Amino acid sequence: MTNHDLLLTWDKDPFVIGVAVLGLVAYAIHRRSHLGKRALFFAVAWLVFVLALASPIGVLAHGYLFSAHMLQHILLVLIVPPLVLLSLPPVSTSSASTQGVGRFLVPWLLGVGAMWFWHAPMLCDAASRSVSVQRLQTVSLVAMGSAFWWPIIGPRLAHRFAAFPAMVYLFTACAACTILGILVTFSPTEVCSVYASPVDRLGVLPLVRDGWGLTPSADQEIGGLMMWVPGCLIYAVSILAMYARYSRDEAEAPALSKDPT
Amino acid sequence: MTTAPIHVQAEGEVDHVHSHATGAYGWFATVDHKRIGILYLLTALFFFAVGGGEALLMRLQLARPEAKILAPDTYNQMFTMHGTTMIFLVVMPTLVGFANYFVPLMIGARDMAFPRLNAMSYWLFPFGGALLHFSFLAGGAPNAGWFSYAPLSETPYSSTSGTDYWVLALLVLGIGSVAGGINIIATVITLRAPGLTIRRLPLFVWMTFITAILIILALPVLNAALVMLLIDRQMDAHFFQATGGGAAILWQHFFWTFGHPEVYIMALPAFGMISEIIPVFSRKPIFGYEFVAGSTLAIAVLSFGVWAHHMFAAGLGHRADLAFAGASMLIAIPTGVKIFNWIATMWGGTLRFTTAMYFAVAFLLEFVIGGLSGITFAAAPISWQMTDTYYVVAHFHYVLFGGTALAIFGAVYYWFPKMTGKLLSERIGRWHFWLTIIGFNLTFFVQHILGMLGMPRRVYTYPDLPHWGLLNMVSTVGAFAMALSVLVFVWNVVHSLRRGEPAGNNPWDAWTLEWATTSPPAHDNFAKVPPVRGRRPLWDLDPKNNGRTTGAITKLRVFDKAAVGMWAFIASETAFFIILIITFVFFNASTKEAAAHLDVKTTAMFSVCLFSSSFTIHMSEKALSQGKQSAFRGWLAATVLLGGTFMVGQASEYRKLLTNGLDVNTNLFATTFFTLTGFHGLHVTIGLIALAVLLGLAFAGDFTKDKRASAFKAVGLYWHFVDVVWIAVFSVVYLRNLA
Questions:
Q1: What is the pLDDT of residues B121-154, one digit of tens each?
Q2: Is A193 in contact with A126 (CB distance < 8 Å)?
């Protein structure tokens, strides 16, 4: 198989196609009367979703390359959910959100858990072996990702964190993912044994091993670095976005209190 | 309407901690942030002379090829002490000193949030400096370089006690810095004057605040690594020694995880000074405030992700090099943004070239050179070629002297009038300035070329190769010019203190709050704090000025300073434990050893005690807030009991392991196990002591719903933290064996 052949190898999993079509239809119905700029976010999210799962990235992630798997993972947790949330129009509700540490901790644990949980060696292998576990993984990643991003850019304004708590939330999540990235990068043992000795169902392996020169350990290192460096940059960019939002909001805010003089 | 001042911080709120002792004793006993600030600056100036003297000795030795002024080992001690002194005893304390003096003034507060803690932070600084220099008397100063790479810093290769003193001194200084960082964070969050929202914060305060966050997160990483090195050296363990299965590269990772943010710890406050000086002497507000402030945030966040660019030559592999080269180059963007903002601030302004402004403009030029050579290092192939040559020495001196030191000199000229009531002499100032600039560029510019010619750094002498002798001589001459400039500076300070022109409250017609009070400020800083409606409160006061802001005096959210301080401390401790946990995982990829030695069931039982103590302390807090005194005491006593039981469990486990012959230095499992659980145990013990004190006070009736409840809550937070750490430690050390 050549590079060109690989580019044409797409996964035609009915589940992925089904979810994609369903998502598109649901969004179109939900927003039928006012498809504005926000629809663009959805379109990009949709494209990324399809690319992550059905394109050669998805093909390679399915049992061939840990690094492709990691890319898929990052796209599903850190790119697709925030874009989908941005595609929904903001709603100001008067319902105050719940208070307390849980409001901060639960989405944080879900978002960071999405990264850590599926990289426990046992689960990582299970997801690569069984199609149903893999589907569960896909759904859970997007769901946990959405829960994580909900208090940052979710459509319910009352549920959003203030800028500075949001920055702490993102920074600590970034740190947690960085640590995972470091562990994966430098781990002497493989995280997912499946990728160490792939079953070559499509005949891609010679291209990957000989053509690209990717040994299993190099592959895992790239995966770890992906989570570590670009993964962390996504959080870093969001922190700056929070600062930008804070600057803008306060500049626009009317006088909040009476003049004490 | 604009001129009516408003009160801050109720009278008496801070006075009870103020010592009113006078004379020399008053300086020793002081908890006044201004005096502590000045103590920081003077002590740092003293160490600047020491570190500078060491540099001069090195330059004398290097002036000619094959010189024999310093013995090789003495030379190694000199460069180690020079680097360590300049970073930990000069640059950091100077910046902390300015922060101490000016952050409270600039935010309209009367003092730092924790004045006594502030005094402790300061006194740890001369203590650390004394420890470091005591090594000279104890068999030789440290000689393994300021980053003390393992295994060179390990006992077989550094057998004198110099490195031990180095470790201890840095630990002491690190603890002081973290305490200082916590104090700055709590001060900025809780003590701002009404109207001073984060968005209106003077940039020096904002950047110092971000620096404080970097300090509390980065210094613990160094502290953890230092502790491991000390355990290696004192207890024959092998964290960083390949002979016992350890990994020398781990030291490099930990050191630069601290070391790269450290670069910004030393740079950001300097950026803040420049961001105050340039607008005032350009008669314009800073151009693009949000971009300057936001780019600071970007630098801070990125700084934790790029340390490996210090390790391109360490053999991380092409893939890691590539990732870090890319990430490192990104940092050039927010830094470049700042440079352009400063230039744009001057553009079209009414420039007033005072000595402070001279230094600020020189900072721009010299720092850009240092920044550009920094970008060349982000390219891994250039780094391979240039690393450990004089090109590196040139680069970081352009950043730290051309950048930070020039900004500090600028800040001294700018703020000296506020601190003393006297203006520094502009005439002597020009001499100081030009001597500094000429000396600095002579010294370090030629070192770029020496580096490209291949002269390695940290060599005590060199062969007589073409141009090497001449370039080194130029560098040495420059160094002496710099030394002369420092003498001129000191003369200016002494002269101006005696005969300087009186400064008045606001000699520069500046607009931040520190200029609203007398020079020097009274003990309590302000009688009344002017209203803050925008970023330039004093500018807004004068009806003659155009473009006055008429924003509202926003009411600020009130935060409890004990809680803020404790959260900052917890963040810092988290960083410390993360390093210990990572080290445990790194050395225990296989759980064989742990499974052979540890009794999961027994420890699980004792762990339940610790976890349930989180519940009891929560109940205790609840009882306190409801005013149920006896329930409050009962739950608190239960907490102490449960925590004590856990410690008994830990002690019995240690006893069993030790009697079975498993000692700290037996193998890496034992080393990492005892280090991690030992430090957790230490934290539990400290928590227990605190709780026992609280219990005593509780029985004395010291706590009620309104009295000291926040102090109790802060200790409670700490206790929860200790429990959460144990969840992590227990999972990693014990539960992993079951999987």
A1: 999 999 999 999 999 999 899 999 999 999 999 9
A2: no
Q: What residue type is A246 in one-letter code?
A: Y
Per-residue pLDDT tens digits for B5-22: 444 444 444 444 444 566
* Residues forming a β-bridge with A173: none
Integer-rounded Cα radius of gyration of chain B: 27
Where do the domains of chain B lie?
Answer: 22-541, 561-738
Report the residue from B197, B301, B323 with minimal CB separation from A236: B301
**Nearest-by-CA chain B residue for A235:** B301
Hey, how many other C-beta atoms are within 10 angstroms of the C-beta on B239? Answer: 28
User: What CATH class is the domain B561-738?
Assistant: mainly alpha
pLDDT digits (tens, 9 = 90+) for A58-85: 999 988 999 999 999 999 999 999 999 9
Q: How far is B587 from chain A (nearest CA, A)?
A: 10
pLDDT at B565: 97
Question: Has this prediction a pTM greater than 0.90?
Answer: yes
Residues from chain A that touch B314, judged by Cβ atoms under 8 A, are none
Residue ranges in chain B modelled with pLDDT below 50: 1-19
| CB under 8 A, 24+ apart: contacts of B517-524 | B517/B105, B518/B421, B519/B417, B519/B418, B519/B419, B519/B420, B519/B421, B520/B34, B520/B418, B520/B419, B520/B420, B520/B421, B521/B34, B521/B105, B521/B418, B523/B18, B523/B32, B524/B14, B524/B15, B524/B110
Per-residue pLDDT at A97 exceeds 80: no
pLDDT band at A101 (very low <50, low <70, confident <90, very high): confident
Q: Which CATH number fits domain B22-541: 3.50.30.10, 3.40.50.970, 3.50.4.10, 1.20.210.10?
A: 1.20.210.10
B571, closest residue in chain A (CA to CA):
A172
Per-residue tokens: B571: 């963040």
ipTM of the predicted structure?
0.89
Q: How far is CA B514 from CA B207, B427, B511, in A?
A: 17, 25, 8
CA atoms of B211 and B266, how far apart (whole Å): 8
Which structure tokens are listed for B259?
């070391």
Under an 8 Å CB criterion, which residues of A touch B?
122, 164, 167, 171, 174-175, 178-179, 182-183, 185-189, 218, 221-222, 225, 228-229, 232-233, 235-236, 239-240, 243-244, 246-247, 250-251, 255-257, 259-261
Q: Check whether A96 has a pLDDT greater than 90.
A: no
Using CA atoms, how far residue B233 sits from A52, B154, B237, B667, in Å, is 50, 6, 7, 15
pLDDT > 90? residue A127 = no
Q: B302 and A236: CB-CB below 8 Å?
A: yes
Give kind and range of the element (H or E) at residue B364.
helix B355-378
Nearest Cβ partner of B297 from A228, A239, A251? A239
Instruction: Name the band, by pLDDT with cuts 50, 70 and 90, for residue A252.
Output: low
CA B558 – CA A221 distance, rounded (Å): 47
Give yes or no for residue A250 having a pLDDT over 80: no
